[in-house]
Amino acid sequence: MRTTAVAHPNIALLKYWGKQDAPGNLPATPSLSITLDSLTTTTTVAEADSDQFRLNGQVAADAKVLRTLANWRRDHPIPPLAISSRNNFPTAAGLASSASGFAALATAVDAHCGLGLTKAERSELARRGSASAARSIHGGFVTLAGPDWRAAQLLPGAAWPLRVVVAIAATGPKAVPSTEGMERSRTTSPHFDAWVASAAPDFAAMKQAVSTRDFAALADLAEASCLQMHALMFSSRPPLLYWTGATVECLRTIRELRAEGCQVFATVDAGPQVKAVCEPRDAERVEAALRRIGGVAETLQAGLGPGATASIQRAISANACCSLHS
Ligand code: DP6
Questions:
Q1: Checking phi first, is residue 295 left (phi over 0); if not, alpha (psi -120 to 50) or beta?
Q2: CA 100 to CA 136: how far, in whole Å?
Q3: Complete domains list, the chain, with CATH
Q4: How far is the CA of 50 from the centre of ligand 1 (A)?
């Protein structure tokens, strides 16, 4: 028996950067994200003699995956698993592959082992792997906040079908992984306490902007959150500089487009890629403008997508199988 789950990355509009000093991988601040559609992680699990992990066809000794499985086994009966995961987009380059990766893994393990988890419980399992993954359990606009730190859907994507244009400024893996980078910021940036203090009012304002489909308010809040997070990164010791020249050029171009009347704003995570969030009517113009920038290797577009799902394949003969659950 094999179980396959599909999950999509999410892009935080209100960022999570820094953890609480407590067990459970709890963020220090609430966050709000959108789940994408065309970018996917597909993860298949099957029972094995010992845990094995393959990423994009290659055997990978991923300590975070093995540690997370050990953590899940404290509460759930999970046998040794052969796990095979594939991304249809660059891995570990600031495109939220760990979000879709742990959301897909939690969803596959839940279905495969018959754990019978609710979405909220599955979101907690995913969060223990990577906090942003808690949000990819759900589709559309998603919040992750205390006191339970389980993600919840705020609005389905169809209720406000924004588009996201991703400008790929570099495809290699990132220099400093998020987990390490955010801990460096928490312990060394003089601005960390101010970041935590501003999170609750910004979260309330952003939920309101999404609920009322107020694009201008959402744009203001999202760009402020992104640039404050990068200010934390710049002010860490040693500093974290994820941007390239093309990142800056994309940010400048997106501001120009907005001044010309396009409904678009930018956000950047722990990598050089720029994500331009826009109204559908402006997506082609935004993509054409970003594609012209030197240093942008590629652009891609996504809409807002669904949460993570799983299906079980039970082999009924050597060359046939049937899908039992989705
Ligand atoms: C910049 O969720 O990858 O994408 O919980 O340590 O695995 P861990 O961190 P992770 O950090 C994501 C950081 C971010 C912002 C965000 O997605 O909110």
A1: left
A2: 6
A3: 2-158 (3.30.230.10), 163-302 (3.30.70.890)
A4: 29
Pocket of ligand 1, candidates 16, 102, 184: which has the most ligand atoms within 8 Å of its Cβ, to mutate?
16
Q: Is the pLDDT of residue 325 over 60?
A: no
C-alpha separations of 131 from 15, 36, 89, 196, 216 in Å: 11, 17, 20, 16, 28
**Atom number of ligand 1 nearest to Cα 94:** 4
C-alpha–C-alpha distance, residues 137 and 153, integer Å: 9
Return the best residue to mutate from 33, 91, 132, 142 for the ligand 1 pocket (most ligand atoms within 8 A of CB). 132
pLDDT per residue as tens digits for the range 47-84: 999 999 999 999 988 899 999 999 999 999 999 999 99
User: In terms of C-beta density within 10 A (0-12 exposed, 13-18 middle, 19 or more buried), how is residue 323 classed?
Assistant: exposed
Q: What is the mean pLDDT of residues 137-152?
A: 98
What pLDDT digit, counting tens, does each position of 106-125 carry? 999 999 999 999 999 999 99
